[in-house]
Amino acid sequence: MHAVGARPNFVKMAPVIDALRDRGAKQMVVHTGQHYDAAMSADMLEDLAFPAPDRFLRVGSGTHGEQTGRILIGFEQVLLELPQVSLVVVGGDVNGTLACALAAAKLGVPVAHVEAGLRSRDWAMPEEINRVLTDRLSALLFTHSPEAEPNLIGEGIEAGRIHAVGNTMIDSLARFAPRAERLAAWEGFGLDRHGYVLVTLHRPSNVDDSGRLSAIGEALCRLAERHPVVFPVHPRTRARLQQGGVGDRLAAAGVMLTAPLPYLGFLSLEAGAGAILTDSGGVQEEASALGVPCFTLRTTTERPVTIDLGTNHLLGDDPATIRQVTTAPPRPCAIPLWDGHAAERIADVIVAA
Hints:
The protein is α/β, with parallel strands linked by helices. The chain has helices at about 5-20, 40-45, 65-80, 95-105, 125-135, 150-155, 170-185, 205, 210-225, 235-240, 245-250, 265-270, 280-290, 305-310, 340-350, and strands at about 1-5, 30, 55, 90, 110-115, 140-145, 160-165, 195-200, 230, 255-260, 275-280, 295, 310-315.
């Protein structure tokens, strides 16, 4: 049983589902409904050719406690109705990942965690709490970068439960990048390839404080004086931008604000960008795989491999550092096991378990 519910889950889990199907595994998908905006959910599933979910919990938004609790209750009920489930597969670090892993573990159903072992060491991030606890609950831990295994060993996880497999998000990228390139989404904005900056911001640390968001907005306005800026706006960010007129100031400065984009459209903009400014973990990975310069507006990253071997640069938490963002041609990066075959390795381990 695969538990999904947020945009990154779909990208990470689609290749795993495909690989297990090719090996004859009987599977079902539970969609928690943590992301329900069309571009964050339905359009994503269509772009990825993701199988229709067998169950849809429709939890929606809410506080961390509300959302996690609703998913925990709903997913537990599904497992109680289906006692034949032999493994629950979760991915990433969203609230649904922890809630579904907890429900399964308490019912004695083994858990497999795709993208295990990532650590930011920043306990102010809800995702750090989710990923650490999910790893403690998991019987199979699938890592996607070299530093993950020592992180897990240092926390007392037995080496035999850890499997270095690579990055399934890059499996999806490898599959769909040619289509995304042909889509040339940048042309729809009247932009030149590798001549614009793509922006994504959604973390509470950046968008929930009105003063900080206003400072980020001013920095983006100045960035737009040097480079065209495209900013697909996450639903939580959209609500914050409407407060205090930040969105109006960005639009007046020429920042191109758009609704969230489907997977292929966003991947196309990533591939065509001259630089990406983000606070997203997955975007750091995709940018490095594409060779596009990435600037991360955070003080830490749970993906240090994107700095060591990729294109990622940590800006810290001062919005003034956004002035460092500049466009450049892409450069190829080689990160171990980010080769488009991670899901196949995962499927082989699961089938053999």
